[in-house]
Known about the structure:
Elements: H1 3-9, H2 21-43, H3 50-71, H4 83-112, H5 118-122
Amino acid sequence: MNAQSHAHHDHHDDGAAHGTLKGYLTGFILSVILTAIPFWLVMGDVLADAQTTALVIMAFAVVQIIVHMVYFLHMNSKSEGGWTMLALIFTVVLVVITLAGSLWVMYHLNHNMMPVSAHDMRNMP
């Protein structure tokens, strides 16, 4: 057996997940379902409350993000020695802090900078 043919048969397990047709099809079908249900919820006006509809759609979005990470990006705790999962956790923490802080600032700006009514203007010195 020469070195070239040996190189083709040399397989090592680096912990990275490799995609299969079944995995990609499962991910695709789940993605279609997770897109179609929120579309139906909005177009069919299924839920009466707009806030409930928005929360349900956001929940479906989170599930779809997880489906994409698992089935298409092959992210798991074993790939690249766990560094991809650590980077993902760090990114999620930063995004949550940024979004929560932005919403908090916008809420308080809106609350504290509301226009003054004409009635309040008469009482000003």
